[in-house]
Design goal:
It is built from 2 helices and no strands. The protein is an all-alpha fold. The protein starts with a helix and ends in a 5-residue tail after the last helix.
Length: 144
């Protein structure tokens, strides 16, 4: 039993759309990963600036000032840790989106091969039918 050409075309269109959606998802995931990486770099730089500034502020600070400095450093450290975790999660999402796109492209190539095989079979059947008609015309008796 062969697959109908209309069915193959519908599957091809559906797979093409799924591939396009996966491509858009990959683009979005890469943009999100880039933004998360930039946020992590910014948070790390801010933590470094805060630590450098703390050395200067600690010389002239009171106990209350030291407590504020400690809280500020811990806040920036937590932000940097959270941004690094978000960056790692976004990188994982981008990798998964890339794998999904590769899978969709493989599926589309499979459908393309099925269409090509169906077209080859159709062409072979047409050629055999044409040959049969030619043989029938050449083999029948001719009237003088």
């Amino acid at each position: 039993m062969t697959i109908r050409p209309r069915s193959l075309k519908a599957v091809h269109v559906a797979r093409t759309r799924l591939r396009d959606l996966a491509s858009a998802g990959l683009s979005q995931a890469q943009a999100d990963a880039g933004a998360a990486h930039a946020a992590a770099a910014t948070a790390t730089a801010e933590l470094d600036r805060t630590l450098d500034d703390c050395r200067r502020r600690m010389n002239a600070a009171s106990i209350t000032g030291l407590i504020r400095i400690s809280a500020e450093v811990e806040t920036h450290r937590a932000e940097a840790t959270q941004a690094a975790a978000a960056s790692a999660q976004a990188a994982t999402a981008a990798r998964e989106a890339s794998e999904a796109l590769a899978r969709r492209e493989r599926e589309l190539r499979t459908v393309d091969r099925a269409i090509e095989l169906a077209l080859n079979v159709t062409e072979e059947l047409r050629a055999a039918d044409e040959q049969r008609q030619s043989d029938d015309l050449n083999g029948r008796r001719r009237w003088p």
